[in-house]
Amino acid sequence: MMLEQLDTQLQEHFSSINQQPMNTIEDPIEIPQIDFERYNAKETFIALSYIVRVIVQKPLIDKALKCYDKELLQDYLHTIELADLSRFNANEFTNQLQQTRLKRRKIKNLALFLNIIAENMNVEKILKQLWQEPSLRNCYHYRHPETGQRMLDIMNVKSGEGRAGENY
């Protein structure tokens, strides 16, 4: 019984009637629209490059934050401790302290982001994978020499010349 059903199904499948594609719109495919002006691979790489360059500065940023927290703060506290307050210019002192704290805040904000990014992103692994990705090579190489030559002839490109800066 099952063999007969399979035989019927395969006869219908191999029939010349079934050799033409059908246009059924029961479940149409909706292709998501992407704003390539705003979201594109080149800008994504520029952003990644920026993050990598900043992460490389993380030790320097951490050291600067440590200096502000331990050494500069202590200088201000010791000044208050040791100064003759009757001769102390409180306005200048508070202005200097405020400027120092604002600089420290910039460093701390940057350090905060870098710590979270560094903990959750393996930069070496990402760069290694991008470097090894064959799709990101500068140009396409035809797999079949004769087809490649025909395609280059169609494009009016001499063999080995290619178009500079373009991906194939």
Structural class: mainly alpha
Helix proportion range? 55-70%
The description of the largest β-sheet is: none
Q: SSE string, helix = H, strand = E? A: HHHHHH
Distance between the termini: 54 Å
Keywords:
168 residues, mainly alpha, elongated, disordered C terminus
Topology readout:
Blueprint: H1 2-14, H2 41-56, H3 58-82, H4 90-120, H5 123-132, H6 145-154
Helix pairs in contact: 3-4
Report on this structure:
This protein has helices at 2-14, 41-56, 58-82, 90-120, 123-132, 145-154. The chain is mostly helical and 168 residues long. α3 (58-82) packs antiparallel against α4 (90-120).
Short description:
This protein has 168 residues and is mainly alpha-helical. The protein has 6 helices and no strands.
